[in-house]
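Standup notes
- DV: blocked on the single-chain target, sequence here:
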Amino acid sequence: MKELRGRVALVTGASRGIGAAIATALAAEGCDVALAARSTEALASLSTTLGQQYGVKTLALPTDLSDERQVEEMVQKTMAAFGRIDILVNNAGAGIYGDMAALCSANLRATFDLNFFAPIAAMHAAVPHMAAQGDGVIVNIGSIVGKFPQPLGGGYSASKYALHGASGAARAELKSDNIAVVLVCPGLTDTEFAAHSRVSVPGVEDMQGERHAPLRGVPPQRVARRVVKAIRRREREVYITLFDRLVVLGAQLFPGFFAWGLLLATKIRRRRFAESRRRMTDG
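- DV (later): unblocked, structure below
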């Protein structure tokens, strides 16, 4: 799919962060874009901006991606407005913090609903249209922690492990329909993702996410540029930085050393949550 001008892209989680950056990058390439997320105002604003700035057709689709019926309606409305879907970007996702043995099951299920079941539902709805067209690209936004466990973030890691596995299977299954499945594995990205994640840590349940990440990460625009390149090339699996790729490779080649690093990371993260608990108590 080297020529993107005139193509139709549906991007989930498009109201902010990586999703908004991907939608903007695709519009800049001349794609008409359908934008899906829960935030009605943010979607409407971005939709208007992209249409005015790049002269493309846009469609704002307020959608709760954890509701399978709404996901199906999202695809139907995109087809009704544009007549086709060439690119599906499954970006919407959420994090969850806490020990695996103590996570609230309702929170964990909600995380899987958005991170795993929503992309599967979107693929289920969009693939028949792509197959009828004889072409399509599905982009699933995974994570490098879908390649190795994340201490106190195991629920999130597990949801991305599941998405990675499903992406590989779908890639083989859809090859004969000329539909490519691209798995993108970002590392730390400079967005509000951590601050909006669920917390299931005793004593800080009222705190939403980590307010201050130890590192800022790459800008979402860099992720978006790499995604556009991957769509053009119909790549299989994509990492954003060399560091991300090396971390995953290190986890695979040196599991013992990596396990030691995970223990250290666990201690550091527990200390941060303990400090947050003290601040909440003092406040």
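- Follow-up: The mean pLDDT is 91.
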